[in-house]
Design goal:
The strands form two sheets. The protein has a six-stranded mixed beta sheet, with helices on both faces. It has eight helices and nine strands. The protein is globular, with a radius of gyration of 17 Å. By secondary structure, it is α/β, with parallel strands linked by helices. The longest helix has 18 residues.
Length: 218
């Protein structure tokens, strides 16, 4: 199981502006990869292509041997639901749901929320937010909300977690805690983690760093 990108080119607009310039990338199962670079270097664009949220303009990307561009909407939806977890800079928790209900959102869509409730509580305990289970997002700190988002991304045991600037809105102490959480998930569960960050210290915490300059790997 791996992610392979060959000559990935991404363009936006008309006339087209090229954001990614022929990127080759190979991510093995169980790796912890960081994608770093200055603002505008193409980090998030590359992450969205690797995570199946977008397709390249040219080139080919496969995940577990399949090309997302060749999957039906139903296949892609199922793959994202069962194999992929997403964490963004802003946690996107539903404000009217408790922390536990937010963690169980994916399972609820699959009719599995009751089955996975105890697992969700154990997962929240392991992330030190078990005592927040019945609180609404507005009653939690930013770091606690982000760890709820991490728990939500993990509840279905995804093979891949894609994290786009997950520490971007957090203070340094909380950001460090989130990074240690991701390292723990990678080490203990073997989850492949692809992290976008503009923080050099956080990028260096990954096993391998991919550094982008103007849409090229350097």
């Amino acid at each position: 199981m791996s992610i392979v990108g060959k000559n990935i080119i991404k363009e936006f607009g008309d006339p087209p502006t090229r954001v990614l310039h022929g990127i080759d990338i190979n991510i093995e199962h169980g790796e912890f990869i960081s994608i770093s670079g200055r603002s505008g270097s193409g980090k998030s664009t590359l992450l969205y292509i690797l995570s199946t949220l977008d397709n390249p303009t040219l080139g080919r990307m496969t995940i577990d041997g399949k090309s997302p561009a060749e999957m039906s909407d139903k296949e892609l939806h199922h793959f994202r639901n069962t194999s992929v977890g997403f964490i963004f800079q802003f946690h996107y928790l539903l404000p009217e749901l408790t922390a536990l209900e937010n963690v169980l959102l994916g399972p609820r869509n699959l009719g599995r929320d009751k089955e996975l409730r105890e697992k969700a509580l154990r997962l929240m305990d392991s992330l030190e937010i078990g005592d927040q289970a019945n609180k609404l997002p507005s009653q939690m700190s930013g770091g606690q909300q982000q760890r709820v988002a991490i728990a939500r991304s993990m509840i279905l045991d995804p093979r891949y977690i894609f994290a786009d600037e997950p520490t971007g809105s957090l203070d340094s102490v909380t950001g460090e805690r989130v990074m240690q959480t991701l390292k723990k998930i990678n080490k203990e569960m073997g989850t492949t983690i692809i992290l976008v960050t503009h923080e050099p210290d956080y990028a260096a915490m990954a096993e391998r760093e991919i550094f982008l300059v103007d849409g090229r790997v350097v």
